[in-house]
Input
Amino acid sequence: MRLVSDWRTVLRRAWSVRLSLLAAVFTAWGSWWAYRIYGTPLYITIPAVGLNFAVAAARVVKQGYSDA
Output
């Protein structure tokens, strides 16, 4: 796994990273409320937070393309 050459700039300035991290915050908040109000187990809702962080991380990983 290789990072893009200007990964620090991408992390600071890319709207895709900002929005996916914002989505992670809102998902975590919603998961917490679902746990508090309805008793929804966190193992059901927390993977969505991890997925949002994975989206942000995928933005700075160099993508390899092939013509296969």
